Amino acid sequence: MDQFAISRSDPSFLTIEQWARKIEEALEAPSLIGPIRNIRDDDRRPFDAIFVGGGAAGRFGSAYLRAVGGRQLVVDRWPFLGGSCPHNACVPHHLFSDCAAELMLARTFSGSLWFPDMKGQTTSIKEVVDLFRRGRTGPHAVMNYQSKEQLDIEFVLNAPVRIVDASTVEVAGEVFKARALVLALGAEAIRLDVPGHDLAGVHDFATLVETLDREPGDTMVVIGGGKTAIEYGCFFNACGRRVVMLVRGRLLDLIRDGDTRAYVIDRVREQGMEIIEGATVSAITGDAVGRVARVVADTAAGAVQIDTDFVFQALGERPRSRAAVEALGVAVDNNGAVLVDEQLQTSVSGVFAVGDLIGAPMEMFKARKSGTYAARAIMGEKVCYRPVDWPDFLHTHYEVSWLGLSEEEARACYRNVVILKMPPDNPNGLNVGLPAADRTMLYAMARPHMSGFQKLVLDGDSRRVLGAHHVGYGAKDAFQYLSVLVRRGLTIDELGEMDELFLNPTHFIQLSRLRAGHRELRSL
Amino acid sequence: MDQFAISRSDPSFLTIEQWARKIEEALEAPSLIGPIRNIRDDDRRPFDAIFVGGGAAGRFGSAYLRAVGGRQLVVDRWPFLGGSCPHNACVPHHLFSDCAAELMLARTFSGSLWFPDMKGQTTSIKEVVDLFRRGRTGPHAVMNYQSKEQLDIEFVLNAPVRIVDASTVEVAGEVFKARALVLALGAEAIRLDVPGHDLAGVHDFATLVETLDREPGDTMVVIGGGKTAIEYGCFFNACGRRVVMLVRGRLLDLIRDGDTRAYVIDRVREQGMEIIEGATVSAITGDAVGRVARVVADTAAGAVQIDTDFVFQALGERPRSRAAVEALGVAVDNNGAVLVDEQLQTSVSGVFAVGDLIGAPMEMFKARKSGTYAARAIMGEKVCYRPVDWPDFLHTHYEVSWLGLSEEEARACYRNVVILKMPPDNPNGLNVGLPAADRTMLYAMARPHMSGFQKLVLDGDSRRVLGAHHVGYGAKDAFQYLSVLVRRGLTIDELGEMDELFLNPTHFIQLSRLRAGHRELRSL
Predict the structure, then answer these.
(1) What is the DSSP letter of B338?
(2) Nearest beta carbon to residue B139 from set A123, A131, A434
């Protein structure tokens, strides 16, 4: 105390609360607030880099460049740093998935304990969306505060940006130059290319948050079969809607372990989700006022027509590279992803690209890390960044996490694969109250088959962990650290030596300990 | 398929479902079922060890001894293996803590979204206890199935056990001998030693589950200030009761990081818990029918009287060593803990002791690991087991996890302590919607100060992590693996290189990445 005294004497200092108000005003009326400018005009050093786009990649790249002693500028059209993630992408999805988990619990125990009778009841989707709209400026404000007061980032926000050339941008009439340009323009939802795709009521993850203005009806159609499709589909289902998922290929093909995928899909079906695989949407038809009324799809069983007033499309994302291609001629691949080398440099010297703009995996860790690696390259370090072998997850009504090899992949490569799993193989199938842990205890006691599934895949010869798979709650965070240990050669013996925090969501430590005594490992 | 064919042809084979029924019957009428005996009478080898007590320590020790090729027997008075943990100790506490988390959420959002109006409403405690009583045989059954069919453990259950000498026990009239005896007798709740301690309505964690036969009234008194006290106190509070905690010393002294402890206690108070520190209970008085009516305590502010029909005592646990002392003369310490060396051997040659019987820490990891270490010692391996530097946790309405040093401890030892925390220091205090993650999203959006607190403690000189502290959900499991990395010398630079699974409950990876660029580390 008072560490804020100096900052407070700075007339540009804003508390987190003040930032929240300013961001709200700017979102309401951008031009009324005008550019939000935090530039040290007394710093005479040239900029080492300008980050075009202040999402995760641009913000983390900026922070890192600043930390290693460089000078950066980050520019963004939005009045906050952090990008689409906290505004209409990953953070709302987490809120909706959290609601899906809570609502599945409430519907499962409907009318018992303290849970209300939810039979036949729908839950308002719009209220949750509205809650998010009101709440999202809080995290924005934290990030602006942190960026300015703690990370010393220079920025111009709430202003359109024009890329002039490989070292120049124009922001709200002001021209800035730097040694390097870092393109961090992100990606946007791929939109259906069928008649009716622009009818009112046809949404993607961004428009759901930005424009939903009425409660969806009883039937909701989700188009897609990957992470985003299942995450939003489960939320709509948990809100009491009939949900039909139209999947061009196989649902959740990205879950490569067969048992895990089967458990996930069984639970999703059990909640009443209707899944049509091999379905290609051919048209969306509207009503007299231009609102979606019906989806038509071709399937193996013939044409399907679904009456609905709400369509959610989750067809993946496309890098937002057009402006950069037009202004700079950076090379892109067939999907529009900007091509970069291992220093994150594009085909144009001095121009770097990071985040979703450079293509898959469009995940937070890659956005942030590619930003920092570009910063290091620009500051003269020889770096090499290629995301490999990362842990992964998705939400259904559950959290689903995985790392390393599936059982099938392991069996294709190793002669002596050993599996530790919970529940164990047994003649009652999955109707077993283990695994159990935080957030699944009520299921474990009263609906045991809903309490989760998990599997550890081992090489019995080297005794090393090859893969781990988890359906439940509270293990996602652990997979971050576990994956590091696995990459470093974690064995069943080392796992068995660890200290579990009982009741641990991953039962891997204790399952390993039960088997580690064997010279010839056996499955469990 | 069918891997169960052989087992099924064994007349002693039971499915998990069949085990559940058998255990239920035995709990109902032990003598009707009689000893549950799984002994390979065709195996002519002598027993290497008899585990007296089939809780976590005895069961894991048995499994390990069997895995390394030995022959063991485990005996227990209960009809299941796994001991008190899944029957009336850790597992019910997890159920109650899960309910506390759910109920805090429901009460916070009472009457909005899908949550019922809970204002002024109490929630039945007895219904949750009854749910547990009905559900607990499921996990028991899994463990019996696993122990017999997968771990090849030999056992006699549901029978009283008498220790005859250092190599002999008698179980239901049958005498068994072994090279070694492993005492795994567990611990039991320490009971208040004041007038009225035996009135109806005075409970501990075991009697709550075993004997609660009526709904507690509006005021509940909890005596104690450690893990068990706060965990049950928060559950009672979440069920809408006035909870008064009478703490002899300081509440939650075991949370050594000051900021973390303050956040935890602020949240507990915010939920309406009344905490009286420095309180010594002097008497419990009863009503005409022998039920508790009032608790009297001495405090710094004078005597306090609280009218209540329910008292929960959580004064710690005492090792259940008396029978072993009387039968074998094993040496114990002042708390009754059996003294063992690093091979887990007691003062009596050939007699080992494991689990809660050997004293603190009375945690699951120590029970299980000490069992396996004793097994290894008995099978001729030179082992050395002392629990050191384990990660730890407790429940309030939240999960609270920690490892390594508190900030205060670090500052006492290191000249250049660096802190990364979320929320950041800021003039609005904690009213910030970050950290946010699974299970805190609704708070993050609408009650930001409830969305958690976390802190990483670093040595700025070596750049190594010294400690980590987390209040929220979904990080407990991670602390198991993170603690291994920390013991191996984890640095801020290595953390910043990891791949986070956004929105990760521990924000440590991204906070580290934001700072790792600095040669001279700075707090965040």
Answers:
(1) B
(2) A434
Closest to A430 in 3D by CA, of A465, A471, A396, A370: A471
Yes or no: is domain A5-83+137-188+319-378 CATH 3.50.50.60? yes
The class level of CATH for A193-315 reads alpha beta
Stretch A38-61: mean pLDDT? 97
Structure tokens at A236: 């709509």
Among residues B27, B85, B234, B466, the one annotated as catalytic is B85
User: Does the distance separating the beta carbons of B498 and A484 come in below 8 Å?
Assistant: yes
Out of A101, A480, A513, name the one closest to residue B504 (CB).
A480
B502 catalytic, yes or no? yes
C-alpha dist (Å) from residue B511 to A305, B83, B434: 49, 42, 12
- Give the position of tokens 């706060």: B230
pLDDT, tens only, A145-178: 999 999 999 999 999 999 999 999 999 999 999 9
Cross-chain CB nearest to A98 (options B131, B439, B517): B439
A502 carries an active-site annotation: yes
Q: Report residue A383's pLDDT band, with 50, 70 and 90 as the boundaries.
A: very high
B212 annotated active-site: no
A215 — pLDDT class (breaks 50, 70, 90): very high
pLDDT score at A428: 76
Q: Is the Cβ of B172 closer than 8 Å to some Cβ of chain A?
A: no
How many other C-beta atoms are found inside a 10 Å radius of the C-beta of residue A184? 33
Query: What's the gap in Å between the CA of A477 and the closest CA on chain B?
Result: 6
Q: Which of B32, B113, B501, B502 is catalytic?
A: B502
Span B502-518, mean pLDDT? 97
- Identify the active-site residue in A90, A131, A442, A524: A90
CATH H superfamily, domain B398-515: FAD/NAD-linked reductase, C-terminal dimerisation domain (3.30.390.30)
User: In 3D, which of B222, B244, B218, B219 has the Cα closest to residue B232?
Assistant: B222
Q: Return the axis-axis angle of helices A90-108 and A125-135, rounded to nearest 10°.
A: 140
Which sign, positive or negative, has the C-alpha torsion A333, A337, A342, A344? Answer: positive
Q: Which residue do the tokens 């209409």 mark? A: A88
Q: Are A74 and A59 in contact (CB under 8 A)?
A: yes
Place of tokens 């479902």: B17
Q: ipTM of this predicted complex?
A: 0.97
Question: Percent of chain B beyond pLDDT 90?
Answer: 96
How far apart (Å, rounded) are the C-alpha atoms in residues B113 and B99? 19
B151 vs A contacts (CB less than 8 Å): 514
Closest CA to B450 of B251, B270, B275, B253: B270
Asked if residues A312 and A223 have their Cβ atoms less than 8 Å apart, the reply is yes
A363 touches chain B (CB under 8 A): yes
Q: Is the peptide bond between B10 and the residue preceding it cis, with omega within 30 degrees of 0? A: no
Q: Does B503 touch chain A (CB under 8 A)?
A: yes
The residues near A484 (Cβ < 8 Å, ≥ 6 apart) are B485, B494, B498
Report the distance separating Cα B6 and Cα B3, nearest Å: 7
| CB-based contact, A128 to chain B, within 8 Å | yes
CATH of domain B191-315: 3.50.50.60
Q: Where are the domains of chain B?
A: 5-86+133-188+319-378, 191-315, 398-515
- Residue A33 to residues A21, A78, A91, A175: CA-CA distances in angstroms? 11, 12, 25, 20
Is the pLDDT confidence value at B429 over 80?
no
- Per the prediction, chain B carries an average pLDDT of 96
Nearest CA in chain B to A376: B517
- Contact yes or no for B433 and A135 at CB 8 A: yes
Tell which of B16, B90, B114, B454 to mutate to test the A interface (max A CBs under 10 Å).
B114
- Among A333-347, A392-406, B318-332, B421-435, which stretch is predicted with the lowest mean pLDDT? B421-435
Do A517 and B426 make contact, defined as CB atoms within 8 angstroms? no
Cis status, amide bond into B92, omega within 30 of 0: no
